[in-house]
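Kindly inspect this one:
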Amino acid sequence: MNSAGWVLVTGGAKRIGAFLNQEFAKSGKNIVLHYNRSETAAIALKAQLEALNINVILWQANLDEPETIAQRFQALRTQVSHIELLVNSASVFSQGTLLESSLRQIQSNLNIHLTSPWLLIQAVAKQNMPCQIINISDANITHRYTNKSAYFISKKAQETLTELAAIECAPIVRVNAIAPGFVLAAIDSKATQTTAQIDNKDINLLQRQVPLADLYSAIEFLTKNTSITGQTIQIDGGSHLQCPAYMLKN
């Protein structure tokens, strides 16, 4: 990646998004720090990243309102000339079976995991400059797990989005995805188990939590290998092969 370009990680003020921004900043990348409601966390992270002598621009956008994305991105482009890497990381993760999910819950999951990433891919591709797109999927969508149906169905749709975008955006833009397993405990008040309560043997075949650093190293690999597009890398300790026991308890 060109050090003069910018990296945009959606949901970049907290959790996985914040960690990725920290790693990109350490490598000298300029950061578009996206947030929705987490303004306090975004401002604090901006100060931390700027201490690494890189440029940081705050970008507020509600991905649950996809009709606003084009206008918000156009405003961003007045400040940033070239986004060289888009990481669609923002996510919601709430309980609800297929028959119980409300219309609002279904729409919110589709907006955040599919529609807004789709629109951002369109916007980045229209730069007509070399860039890369990486979607953050979920290794466990290989299983028929119904307790979070709106989440899993929207993530399955995102999987197809990755493949179709890779076809349409080539050869200037490469599009890939990473599919993490158990990295951080979900923020869900209805979850029956906390991270501390989950036994390592229930997490995945390797019986250990996936380190955040492994996600970044996979993204780094995808950005450097110029022959890969349309692929999803499972970073999950093997949980895509066998449904983890902890998932059946939540």
Remarks:
- The chain has one domain: 6-249.
